[in-house]
Amino acid sequence: MPYYESVLIARQDLSNQQAEALAEKFAGVITNGGGKVAKTEYWGLKSLAYRIKKNRKGHYLQLTIDAPAATVQEMERQMRLNEDLLRHLTLRTDELDTEPSVMMQKPSRDDRPRRGGFERDDNFGGGFGGGFSDRGDA
Fold first, then answer.
1. Parent domain of 24
2. Which of 6-10, 41-45, 96-100 comes out lowest in average pLDDT?
3. 40 falls within a domain
4. Which of 37, 53, 62, 109 could form a disulfide with 27 if both were Cys (CB 3.0 to 4.6 A apart)?
5. Is residue 136 domain-resident?
6. Which residues pair with 66 in a beta bridge?
């Protein structure tokens, strides 16, 4: 069976439990259609880039799916009919990824860029000037 990833954005006035219940509802559609949901992730309440149906925030959820295409089409049909969903996107993938997504991984302090946008080189002499001059009088 083909593999899919589906990301949902639910309305901001839903509780966390109601948003996760939406994911369980759509996972039930997949299992009833002969597929399986390998992973369900709740990414939290996040700000949207622009207003969607008068909402500034939304609950983000991801489903990783292994199901026939007809089952995924039925799930998407039910998503279009659901008034609690603002947006949804389902993509076909080559392999099933069961590890936590990038959204669920906590960034470490070493991954952040340093202030100033450049790495410090301690062997150079510590700074911009470094005692070199291009005037030729040194």
1. 3-94
2. 96-100
3. yes
4. 37
5. no
6. 3, 36
**Angle of the 69-81 helix axis to the 16-32 helix axis, nearest 10:** 140
Q: What does the pLDDT look like over 73-99, one tens digit per residue?
A: 999 999 999 999 999 999 999 887 777
124/127 Cα distance (integer angstroms):
8
Residues 118-131 pLDDT 10s: 555 555 555 555 55
At residue 43, φ and ψ (nearest 5 deg) are -90, -15
Pair of tokens at residue 48: 């949207």
Domain count within the chain: 1
Residue 80, SS3?
helix
100 Cβ partners below 8 Å, 6+ apart? Answer: 41
Query: Token pair for residue 1?
Result: 């069976």
Residue 59 lies inside a defined structural domain of this protein? yes
